[in-house]
Amino acid sequence: MEMAAMRNRVLAGVIFCFVLPLANADPGMAKTVSHPQQAAAYRTLDPQTAARLVSDYYNRNGVWARVFEIKHINRLRIQRYGKRRAVVHAEYSYMPLSQHIGKAGSDRRNFTLIKRTSGHWTVISMGGYMSGDLSR
Question: Cβ(41)–Cβ(53) under 8 Å?
């Protein structure tokens, strides 16, 4: 295969991977944090499910995974965008996993969720520090 054609094919694949989750064409591509034994619980997006998904994502996949973990979710707000997309705004307390890392604290972040074709809700992204909006 010619080098330019191969580069264009690779670039198209990269763009395809990043655009699809945003366009919601195949939500199954997003990283899931649900476990088989908990799968049935993730079909409805109630406050308890949202809190579990947010905690799982933060603790396992977020920017602070394996450094800090959510200790307690104090408040949350679910903002729906149609049947398959939601943003969860969460205010939580976190604690370091090691005494040598840092101090416990609190934060407010937003988490974007999609409903996969299997019917399970999945967190696909986490907003930055203090990005959560609990005012409504």
Answer: no
CA-CA distance, 13 to 98, in Å (whole number)?
40
Domain membership of residue 7 as a residue range: 1-27
79-125 pLDDT per residue, tens: 999 999 999 999 999 999 998 888 999 999 999 999 999 999 999 99
Strand partners, 85: 114
Strands of the sheet with 105-115, listed across from one edge: 68-80, 85-96, 105-115, 121-126
Torsion on CA atoms 108, 70, 120, 32, rounded to nearest 10: 100
Residues 38 and 21 in one domain: no
Which residues are 95's β-sheet partners? 69
Which of 128, 12, 109 lies closest to 55 in space, CA to CA? 109
Dist CA 86 CA 53 (whole Å): 12
User: The tokens of 49 are what?
Assistant: 């499910």
- Please tell me whether residues 88 and 45 are part of one structural domain: yes
The two three-digit tokens of residue 61, written as one number: 């996949």
Q: How many domains does the chain have?
A: 2
pTM to 2 decimal places: 0.69
